[in-house]
Design brief:
Low-confidence stretches: none
Mean pLDDT: 83
Distance between the termini: 46 Å
Shape: globular
Radius of gyration: 22 Å
Number of helices: 9
Number of domains: 2
């Protein structure tokens, strides 16, 4: 039996159908919004400016998503990451979910999946893990927002601290992946150093925005840091693995 091909024409066809449906949905609501705005008497020039500005500012997050697609495509082929990150997936979720599922199945994320059972299980983990959030939001988000609003109205300082604590809690969940391999030698420190490079680049972007008032950099800081950290990972990996230690 031939090896399973995660880049098969059939998978590309399925992904294309779903993504075209999403495009059609976006076009439908854009047309409805445009007609409604015209009915309210808004200027056509202003509407074009809003559409153009919105299109431009989607480029920055799209770069980050593209990097995620490229990263996952080496392991899972192009159709599945393309579909996931174009519709409902999140970069901060897809890669850890795929890596965790692969590790549980004894597969390496450095090699393309050729076992259909491994591919199917990884796809199910990625899909089932993110679906609950789609259904939780309509029911839980209003209550969460209401609770935060009450807390901030009662004590603004504690309300801000609570939000910051939740954000730090989310970040700490990903730090486990970064520090998981530091006991394995020099190579295990590569993720830590790459994270530090990314932090350094983000600090530089923040200073440029704050001190030099380069406002457009706010939208491109994330992809710049990602690209810079990814580029730095290559010499760092070669340096640490060649020297055999820190």
């Amino acid at each position: 039996m031939p090896d399973f091909n995660p880049n098969s024409t059939f998978l590309f066809l399925l992904a294309t159908i779903v993504i075209l449906f999403v495009f059609a949905q976006a076009g439908f609501f854009l047309a409805r919004s445009w007609r409604r705005a015209k009915a309210l008497g808004l200027d056509t020039g202003m509407l074009r400016k809003v559409v153009f500005s919105s299109a431009v500012f989607t480029i920055a997050p799209a770069v980050s998503i593209l990097l995620g697609v490229i990263t996952l495509s080496k392991f899972l082929g192009l159709p599945l990451p393309w579909l996931r990150l174009s519709v409902v997936g999140a970069l901060t979720y897809e890669l850890p979910a795929a890596s965790t599922a692969a590790a549980a199945l004894g597969a390496s994320i450095a090699e393309t999946v050729t076992d259909p059972k491994v591919y199917t299980n990884i796809a199910w983990v990625m899909t089932l893990g993110i679906i609950p959030g789609v259904f939780y939001l309509p029911f839980l988000l209003p209550r969460i927002q209401g609770g935060l609003g009450k807390l901030q109205a009662k004590d603004k300082k504690w309300g801000e601290l609570f939000i910051q604590a939740m954000f730090l809690g989310m970040i700490s969940a990903f730090l486990g992946v970064v520090f998981a391999r530091i006991g394995e030698g020099a190579a295990g420190w590569v993720p830590v150093l790459v994270m530090l490079v990314s932090i350094f680049l983000m600090l530089i972007c923040g200073l440029l925005v704050k001190k030099l008032h380069i406002k457009w950099l706010e939208d491109f800081a994330l992809p710049i840091c990602m690209l810079g950290a990814m580029a730095a990972s290559i010499p760092l990996t070669q340096l640490l693995t060649s020297q055999g230690g820190l």
